[in-house]
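This part of the workshop introduces the protein records we will be handling. To make this concrete, we reproduce a full record directly below:
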Amino acid sequence: MYSLKGILPTMQLAALWKNALCLQIDSARFTAPEGLFKPNRWGLDIKALHQLIHEAIQLAPIDSRKTLLRNIYLAGGASLLPGLAERLELEISALVAPTIHTQVHLSPWRYNAAYLGAQIIASSTQFDTTCVTLDNLNEFINQLQCSTF
């Protein structure tokens, strides 16, 4: 586990307006993402991120696993957390044989990945036929209400 020694224990943010409010942020700013690796910290009884990735790779054909372990790519908002790729690589490496090399990559487009994906879908020729209309939604909701007891 990473050590928080040498990191300022508290950070102060002060507003720049007349009635300044001082907000103190302690070590929680560094430990909050720990729930990705230890979900019980968030009160969840689920597998951790590195365990899910490892399980998914284990479901692949045996001759593909080494390649997959060297090509883990992160995208999206959580991938912007400092040190996430390194920590994930460390945790996954602990789950495999020491001779197997794991590598986690950060997508250069990870900041805009959701927008880029939405833009691609929206510009698709089938966009209008795949969208859920208000009528579709209402019909679905009515079916749910009828089937509940």
